[in-house]
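DM from R.C. (forwarded with permission)

"hey, sorry to bug you on a friday — could you get me a structure for this? deadline for the figure draft is monday and I only need the backbone to look sensible"
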Amino acid sequence: MLIARAQAAVFFALLLLYAWLRLDPSLAYHCQQPLFFTGTAHLWAHLGFPGGPLEYVGAWLSQLLFYPWAGAALTAVSARLVGRAVGAWVTTAGRPRSPLWEMGPAALVLAQHSHCTHPIHLDLATAAGVAVAAAYGRHAPRAAAPRLAVFAALAALLWYAAYPAVALFAALAGLLEIRQTRRWPAALVCFAAIPLAALAYGYWRWLALGPALLALCPPLETWLADGGLDRAVPGILLYLLVAGSAIWPVRRPGAARPAHESGPKTALRVLGLPLLALLPALILSDGDARARVELDREARRENWGRVLEVGAGLDRCDPLQVYDIQQALYHRGALVDSLFAYPHVPRTAILTFDVNRPASLEALSHVLFQLGSVNKAEHLAHEALEIFGDRPSLLKRLVLINTLKGRRRAAGTFLGRLEMGLLHDAWARRHRQALERGSPWAGDAALTRVRARMPRADDPGYPSTEARLQILLAANRRNHMAFEYLMAHYLLAGRSDLVVANVARLGDFPERYGAAAIPRHCEEAFLLHVAGAGDAERSRATAILGGRQINPATVRRFEEFKRVLRAHGDDREAARGELGPSHGDTYWYYFAFSDPLSAPMGPEPPGAVNPQQ
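My reply, with the result:
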């Protein structure tokens, strides 16, 4: 007994440390942004639909994720609750008690949380469904009619209070009927309760049967919603483990352990078993997912150095991470110098929304807001609000947008939502006071900067990325962010001619470029453009440079790039392999081995397309 208690204490300590130091629950808060509203209206709204009470409790508890230490404690406790519930269920199913039956499921719960998208209320639903099934197996009457009556009452209670738990309870209860009482009709009644619960839920919430059934099986819903099996594997394994414990044959227990063991053996059991049980969390953990969430969180905090540090280590990126990396490069003064040294998305305009990733709506809204395209930023923020609900970051963005546009009533509406929350009410009160003073952007350098970049005329419909950036520069020719994003867009599009044509605009930003400096990628685009051009075009391009000079080091790198290309002839893969380590961060490498987005703008002039010349 003492050894079992020591094992449990050691394992919980490991859960806590793992959740705190490796998972960082504040990443889950940033990814999910659960907003809990105080007041009875929010409570009564959740009491009005099946599963609402559990979601209400989960939203309240999820506020702890904002603080890493409190979030770690919450994650560890929820994992431990699931483990204890599974342990109770296993003994009910007739298996000998073992610490691994409690530790293994808890480790799988931690693996689920490693993706940062797994909500706390689903842990509570799993624990409730398994625990109620264990209690049903132990205490329900043996007579058929009273037993089914108890089952119906418990299923109805779970259906209302914790909807995702009812399917797990009904499935386990059906397995118990087969294993304990051999009553197949009763088992079929239990199994039939699952689609009936989904039908009732769909009728109540105006949902089709498919989505209602998926809500009863969170791992399957995760798999289908995210489009990948990796996030669903821990949950699927957990469900299979719980169900399998009632199906697999029970082995007869071996010989009893001696009453007294040596010190080393005891220490090995106390420390080794918890460490072994934690292996599923380590094996199934998704560190890349956490890194992507951390990158986005640090971008919202404007910790640009950390954004670039995390971004450089990512194996793959989608537009959401690319937006953040490009922002960081701009704010660190390196967007047109180091764009190709970091992950980017070839064949994609710099401000293109990915329809397959709705999460990029918020990131793109943030970029457009900083650029000064406030109307489009507002449109995307409302789209994201429609998809994700009242996220604090979206409500804050809409407060700032309506403040800049002078719509104080609209800003006050979003502030009212934030004031009802637990964690962002102080921010909301501070901004309401600024609104009431009549100078909401006074003393706020960021808002003042965005206000200076805003066009005074409405956007003409849905302009292209190039047109939008040109509109911003026409409104304020010293909008440095719009200029660098325009140049980066031309680079990604493979339009060296347009990069060269806009080099003269460097003079609008003497504090950034001085009288002679040229960003590295602009130098590379210039050299590529004139490499195959005629004398007239070369003279025209050189005249655009004015008094600015190409760095001799850039010229030497270009000559080496052309030499390697010529040496390999038509063997592009061999050239790519040799040039990658030395020239992989250059515009030439991107142009030669990617497929630039040239179609929307028309092809590059013939004299600039062959870097081997």
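R.C.: lifesaver. The radius of gyration is 30 Å.
me: no worries. The CA atoms of residues 402 and 408 lie 7 Å apart.
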